[in-house]
């Protein structure tokens, strides 16, 4: 059975797993809707970091499950509803107030690449391949997805991905800035979890303010909200905990208040 699974490999690190290996982790309509619900739960859960991954080594995700298109994109209204469900899931991942790391193996293609771009960091193994084959299907990416990817790698590489519909290597994706870190396949899980645990030990209010500032820069949050969250850090107990620990040479324990 296909699904988006939520589990907790560590007490403060959540993990979302795209589970549809028979179709290279293509994401069904139900799975997009589940992802929205999962993100809603995580926004109020004690998570300090989230890992987003696909089952197995064959693919992170190949995007929307094309086998559903005839059933769920059969008329203009259905197309709008289907696209809205996908956009809602993309936004939900992007707007989580906690750091999200995409763990990328195998194929990261189409909507799967867009979904990975919604994460804050991307860790890939060196066999991973990336592409946007929209031109082979006669569909188009939403402008905000293109802008998100362009913010990471610039407009010229995005144009190449979209206008040629060719696949690129993990090395190219790393040089472009799409991938933050490259590692060997047998190190991918441990490196991703190491980063998640590292971020999970830091001040969650700082993470929230940082993500709001980046969102304001990208135009999907207001500067006023970002300024408010930054000021809230200065007035927090975690600020006192952090500065006291620094003075004492100890490790701070942040509580998110």
TrEMBL record:
It comes from Paracoccus saliphilus. The keyword Hydrolase does not apply. One of its GO terms (biological process) is fatty acid beta-oxidation. This is Enoyl-CoA hydratase/isomerase family protein. PANTHER family: ENOYL-COA HYDRATASE ECHA18 (ENOYL HYDRASE) (UNSATURATED ACYL-COA HYDRATASE) (CROTONASE)-RELATED (PTHR11941:SF127), ENOYL-COA HYDRATASE-RELATED (PTHR11941). SUPFAM superfamilies: ClpP/crotonase. InterPro entries: ClpP/crotonase-like_dom_sf (IPR029045), Enoyl-CoA_hydra/iso (IPR001753), Enoyl-CoA_hydra_C (IPR014748). Belongs to the enoyl-CoA hydratase/isomerase family. Signal peptide: none annotated. Keywords: Lyase. Gene3D superfamilies: 2-enoyl-CoA Hydratase, Chain A, domain 1 (3.90.226.10), Lyase 2-enoyl-coa Hydratase, Chain A, domain 2 (1.10.12.10). The keyword Lyase applies. GO terms for molecular function: lyase activity.
